[in-house]
Amino acid sequence: MAKNNEYASVLPKKILLSVFLFGLVLLAGRVLYLQFDGFSACFAVAPEESAGLASVSPQDIFAAANSASRHEDGDFALRLYRSEKTRDDVLEFFTGVTGDAGISEVILRYADANNISPSLAFALSWEESRFQPGAVNRNAASIDRGLFQLNDKSFPELSAEEMFDPETNARNGLTHLRFCMDQSGNEVTALAMYNAGSTKVRNGGTPKRTLDYVSRILAFRETLDLDLLQNVALKNL
């Protein structure tokens, strides 16, 4: 019995070590993608906007390629959140990012429910609203609201008050991102669809501004992943 108890105490450490090493492999793998121009190949760019691609940095390109290659069920951030041993640490980490435990909790919950990397979910919300539930963006014929900037034309069933509710916004925003991921097959194109609409992306009309939008999200996601490895995974080894 004593041997069994000793084995049980060592097992969580082995799991955390494997998660940590898995994450390091993912991050190190970015270097290998520098030789591929995978980002611009993920979807066509509108002809009139193609000249602006020079502003997409090599860092953004390999971050995009790396993210496109990931499988959500193997995401180490999601594994850390799903582990009882590290869940509270993950919540504390992302609360430090957003400055609000309630907002962090709902984003984590719906990222988990939709099998989306927490780092990707938080990077998307940062890009869309800087984690401000009351954020508003007025377009020519529509309005975006809340954490994930839900568009009133895309979500006509939701009132403005509902869109400003963090839980309602996170649930709908991340469910929609999951839909885009399922339709596109990879995170890069899914983010483009989230921003520009699936029809425009599928028809080869992805605007340059959308490529920049995707680049910023992926770059911030990589930063979050590295910090999460250092401050949560390593801490619990």
Automatic annotation (TrEMBL):
PANTHER family: MEMBRANE-BOUND LYTIC MUREIN TRANSGLYCOSYLASE C (PTHR37423:SF2), SOLUBLE LYTIC MUREIN TRANSGLYCOSYLASE-RELATED (PTHR37423)
Coiled coil regions, renumbered to chain: none
Annotated Transglycosylase SLT domain residues: 106-204
InterPro entries, alphabetized: Lysozyme-like_dom_sf, Transglycosylase_SLT_dom_1
UniProt record similarity statement: Belongs to the transglycosylase Slt family.
The organism's place on the tree of life at top rank: Bacteria
Name of the protein in its database record: Transglycosylase SLT domain-containing protein
